[in-house]
Design goal:
single chain, about 325 residues, three-stranded parallel β-sheet, 5 strands, about 5% strand, globular, binds adenosine-5'-triphosphate, binds L-tryptophanamide
Length: about 325
């Protein structure tokens, strides 16, 4: 092995709602192969999750559920640092510093803030507003070179790059400027009932999303009812046929079949056969994940051990960057 340090990858998911096929295809699935060439850090971002009210008992259970699902999806804790954001205090500490290097005008432009404040009108809190700054801290603390996310996070990544460059221009090369890593297919899986909006894990409508822990029956039922149109053409046209285009993306991303081959096979035959094929591909993709999850979920001691180890490894990296930041700013060393 060479001594050259490997580049770093970091990403995270909020432990809110239930993990969806969108989270899997847009994020987790693409994380798995990266440990061959990067040092990988994957978090459960619980500090981010409390920007929306959470029930404490549910939040605690869900963190274990998501961790078990990360591992069941193929993230081996021996090859990836898996941890909970609140276990590494450097995240909140760097976020404060970066708040002082981010303009309100920049945050006003964030579309996720606009969407979430429209959804939670009774709780538009300051955390929701400065959420992208905490995300920048998450990324910059680890000197991440690449951040694998779905397409909806591109704007936050651009802001992170701007903050990093601004800080580096003032104080020298403290931070690595990260790049987004967005998958070509599956980057934006849309809702089954509302195919013009992204499938979201905190959606209230149960039938709009496919959850990683849905049983085969439920998956078949939801896909049968997925909104398409009244025609029978299977072709990829996001504007004219958003429902069909979304099902094509799901089929392609879960089975590996190309769009051309999907069109050849199902075009002109009505949507029944096509939807059944999508359901079969999703069930086959999720079956091994669910089997592994059921095995892991009952082993709390193991999961706690993974988090303890992850927090120690993450802290070592994060604390080193925080120290460089404090030195650059002129804070007295601790
Ligand atoms: P919430 O509804 O709780 O805001 P979410 O479903 O948007 O959650 P996040 O925790 O915000 O999920 O995102 C986790 C990761 O999953 C991110 O990398 C995000 O880009 C990706 N992701 C989320 N939804 C989709 C989707 N519909 N298609 C593709 N990727 C997605
Ligand atoms: N903001 C992201 C979740 C998130 C994240 C991160 C993703 C928080 N910190 C760091 C990548 C890297 C979201 O809402 N999906």
């Amino acid at each position: 092995m060479s001594d050259t340090p490997r580049p770093i990858v970091l990403s995270g998911i909020q432990p809110s709602g239930r993990l969806t096929l969108g989270n899997y295809l847009g994020a987790i699935k693409n994380w798995v192969p990266l440990s061959a060439s990067y040092d990988c850090y994957y978090m459960l971002v619980d500090l981010h999750a409390i920007t929306v009210r959470q029930d404490p008992a549910v939040l605690r259970e869900r963190a274990f559920e998501f961790l078990a699902l990360y591992i069941a999806c193929g993230l081996d804790p021996a090859r990836n640092v898996l941890f909970v954001q609140s276990h590494v205090p450097a995240h909140a500490r760097l976020a404060w510093v970066l708040n002082c290097y981010t303009q309100m005008g920049e945050l006003n432009r964030m579309t996720q803030f606009k969407d979430k404040s429209a959804k939670h009108v009774d709780n538009i809190n300051a955390g929701l507003y400065s959420y992208p700054v905490l995300m920048a801290a998450d990324i910059l603390l680890y000197q991440a070179k690449a951040v694998p996310v779905g397409d909806d996070q591109k704007q936050h990544l651009e802001l992170t790059r701007d903050i990093a460059q601004r800080f580096n221009n003032l104080y020298g090369p403290v931070f690595t400027v990260p790049e987004p890593m967005i998958p070509p297919v599956g980057a934006r899986i849309m809702g089954l009932q509302e195919p013009t909006k992204k499938m979201s894990k905190s959606d209230d409508a149960e039938t709009n999303a496919l959850y990683l822990l849905d049983s085969p029956d439920v998956i078949v039922r939801k896909l049968k009812r997925a909104v398409t149109d009244t025609g029978n053409e299977v072709r990829y046209d996001i504007n004219e046929k958003p429902g069909v285009a979304n099902l094509m993306s799901i089929l392609s991303a879960t089975s590996g079949e190309s769009f051309d081959s999907i069109v050849d096979r199902y075009n002109g035959q009505g949507y029944g056969k096509f939807k059944q094929a999508v359901a079969d591909a999703v069930v086959a993709c999720l079956e091994p994940v669910q089997a592994k999850y059921n095995e892991l979920r009952s082993n709390d001691d193991y999961l706690r051990g993974v988090l303890r180890d992850g927090a120690a490894r993450a802290s070592a990296k994060a604390d080193a960057t925080l120290k460089r930041v404090h030195d650059a700013l002129g804070f007295i060393p601790e």
